[in-house]
């Protein structure tokens, strides 16, 4: 979960804990307090959402809908993708037969699983490998499956740097889709209060 999701959940929990003060006229004070506080929170959230950068880590499902299996050309799967430091690879495979090993370039080329750099296999058949080092990463499946094509080589780059400020007039920041969804949730919650 992102930090914004955690903030949202915390606000939801706190809203439920606010005491309801019954008045003699039959109304309650919590509803008005929630609206008042909600408007302030929504204003602050909108400001934060507008300032967030659009770049974020990407989770790639290796092999897309085919997953981590034989008879898939992972070179073709990876060719149109840019992998950046901070991204994640998500391997989905038959946990009873296959595994996920990160190996050296030499072991990748020879399909040798004898000395892996890291064994990402957890036994669930759904394993995640973080791409947190800028270099070439090499993954194979041992037990002979590498010879059937279960191997992936990808370069991991640093995120492109933000362009330096220039005297050119800048446009106002736009809302990315994630921020639009969060903004909608905040506004909806205030409307319900």
UniProtKB/TrEMBL annotation:
Residues 58-158 form the Phytocyanin domain. The keyword Translocase does not apply. GO terms for cellular component: plasma membrane. GO terms for molecular function: electron transfer activity. The keyword Glycoprotein applies. InterPro entries: Cupredoxin (IPR008972), Phytocyanin-like (IPR039391), Phytocyanin_dom (IPR003245). Pfam families: Cu_bind_like. Keywords: Disulfide bond, Glycoprotein, Signal. May act as a carbohydrate transporter. Belongs to the early nodulin-like (ENODL) family. This is Lamin-like protein. It comes from Quillaja saponaria.
């Amino acid at each position: 979960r992102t930090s914004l999701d955690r903030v949202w959940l915390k606000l939801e929990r706190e809203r439920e804990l606010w005491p309801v003060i019954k008045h003699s006229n039959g109304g309650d004070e919590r509803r008005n307090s929630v609206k008042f506080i909600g408007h302030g929170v929504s204003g602050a959230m909108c400001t934060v959402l507008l300032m967030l950068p659009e770049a974020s880590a990407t989770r790639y499902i290796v092999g897309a809908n085919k997953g981590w299996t034989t008879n898939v050309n992972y070179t073709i799967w990876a060719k149109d993708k840019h992998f950046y430091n901070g991204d994640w690879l998500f391997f989905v495979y038959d946990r009873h037969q296959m595994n996920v090993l990160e190996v050296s370039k030499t072991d990748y080329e020879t399909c040798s699983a004898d000395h892996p750099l890291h064994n990402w296999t957890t036994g669930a058949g759904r394993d995640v490998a973080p791409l947190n080092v800028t270099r070439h990463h090499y993954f194979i499946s041992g037990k002979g499956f590498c010879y059937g094509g279960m191997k992936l080589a990808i370069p991991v780059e640093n995120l492109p740097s933000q362009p330096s400020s220039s005297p050119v007039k800048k446009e106002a920041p736009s809302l990315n889709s994630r921020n639009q969804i969060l903004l909608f949730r905040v506004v909806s919650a205030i409307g319900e209060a």
